[in-house]
Amino acid sequence: MPLRTPDLHFLLGARVGRGTIKSPEQWLLVLFLGLGWAGCSPGEDPRARGRVVVEYWEKWTAYEGDAIAAVVEDFNRSQDRIFVRRLTVSKMDQKLILATSGKNPPDVAGLWNTYLPAYVENNALLPLDRWASESGLREENYLPVFWEMCRHRGHLWALPTTPSVTALHWNKKIFREAGLDPEQPPRTLAELERFNETITRKKPDGSLDRIGHMPQEPGWWMRDFNRWFGGKVWDGESRLLLDSEPNRRFFAWLESYPRRFGGPAMDRLRGGFGNFASPENPFFTGKVAMVMHGVWLDNFIRNYAPPDFDYGAAPFPTDEANPAFPVSVAEADILVIPAGSRHPREAMEFIRYVQSPPAMEKLCLLMKKFTPLRDVSPAFLRNHPHPYLRVFLQLARSPRTVPILNLPSFNEYSNDIEANVNEVLRGSLTGEEGRTRLQGRQQKALDDKLARWRRVAAGRESTWCRELAETP
Question: Is 165 exposed, middle or buried (CB count within 10 Å of its CB: 0-12, 13-18, 19+)?
Fold first, then answer.
């Protein structure tokens, strides 16, 4: 299979020939110098001799790094033909595209699913349709939402490892103090706001001492928040849908916060919040009683919250209660084979091993997450330490759970919605002003992305089809 070089212009949007940067190669050099290299390479393992060495780049550190290291070690012990050499790489999303552009990529890499569309359209990955089929990996093996997020432009490009879905987490101690039943979280957005009013406490000077819920805390899923109002960001083809009634309700809900709690007062409260991964996390200190977070929050509660911290987890409220079909957004770490991989078939053999139920359950158990596979062993459920594992499994299996936004202009949209939401929550923009401004600016950004894609689409598809046909 011939090597191909990703289109660095397409990914970076570089204006070659203007300013001081004249070529993609100069972009490459500048980025390498600016980012630095933060990987750590292990010494040569004697077991690698005589085997095909598969270079594996992964972003995980700490307990996550230990978890994948254990799975890699199991694979290396399981056979004597392939040796996987794992390298921990920071800023993976940037360094992998640079290495692929420089024709020196790893054989397999771990990414976040949010970067998949950009990598695919940048011609930086190999399609996995045929390899997955030959390896016995089928759609029916996976929870639908995680299989869906590994596909783009009609092809399979990745396979999932550790997944997450979002849920409401609430502080039971604060519920008791406010006279609320600590075992009964809000089921609708209207109930959420009634609980919010009951829990929020002000100081004598009128400033906020604590708040029941604040959309910006942590605010990481703001681009997807309209899902809980029944809305979508775009039609999946060419049009943003921010003019729809659910999106209007979403922005009206945002506008209600500064009116009820005061934009400057919320800003001052937020100014005293500590870092997420610390004992000063506002959820752990009781400054915010209800937050949206993923399955991994339990790890941080165990490490940073007070020993007696008592919390619950349940589906985040929607416009109308529907306990049988809760709403959530899903994301996952994924394994990909970069374009230019020197050992793609051996890389696929490693990926296939990770997808096996024993390896996947070991990895997800060590990371205290659920598994993206459809079938779960009784031992996994019995041994899992997460007290609300079944809540997250219910959410992952719900037909109303969708992958995190995969808009072609994802980065532009994410940054712009955060800026607009912050202004609405401060009270400096009305909800309608923020929504209208976002729709106008981001429709143009989407149009520009799609126009660039149309110019290269035929060539990309031809390359992918040829590679699938040439798969050895």
Answer: buried
d(Cα 181, Cα 59) in Å, to the nearest integer?
41
Task: Tell me the pLDDT tens digit for each residue of 171-226.
Answer: 999 999 999 999 999 999 999 999 999 999 999 998 999 999 999 999 999 999 99
Burial environment of residue 125 by CB neighbours within 10 A (0 to 12, 13 to 18, 19 or more): buried
* Per-residue tokens: 87: 């390298």
CA distance 219 to 221: 6
Distances (CA, A) of 226 to 25, 214, 241, 247: 40, 15, 11, 6
pTM above 0.85, yes or no: yes
Give pLDDT tens digits for 216-262.
Answer: 999 999 999 999 999 999 999 999 999 999 999 999 999 999 999 99
Helix, strand or coil, per DSSP, at residue 42: coil
d(CA 92, CA 111): 7
Contact between residue 3 and residue 103 where contact means Cβ atoms under 8 Å apart: yes
If DSSP codes are grouped into helix, strand and coil, which group holds residue 340? coil
By the 8 A CB rule, do 5 and 82 touch? Answer: no
Query: Closest Cα partner for 351 from 125, 154, 174?
Result: 125
What's the CA gap between 343 and 423, in Å, rounded? 49
Q: Which of 370, 368, 335, 337 is nearest to 354 (CA)?
A: 335
Domains recognised in the chain with CATH numbers:
8-164+333-399+454-470 (3.40.190.10), 166-329+405-448 (3.40.190.10)
Query: Pick from 414, 371, 383: which is nearest to 159 by CA?
Result: 371
Helices (H), 36-128: 62-78, 92-101, 116-121
Render 375-392 in DSSP notation, one character per residue.
---HHHHHH---TTHHHH
Containing 155, the helix (H) or strand (E) segment is: strand 155-156
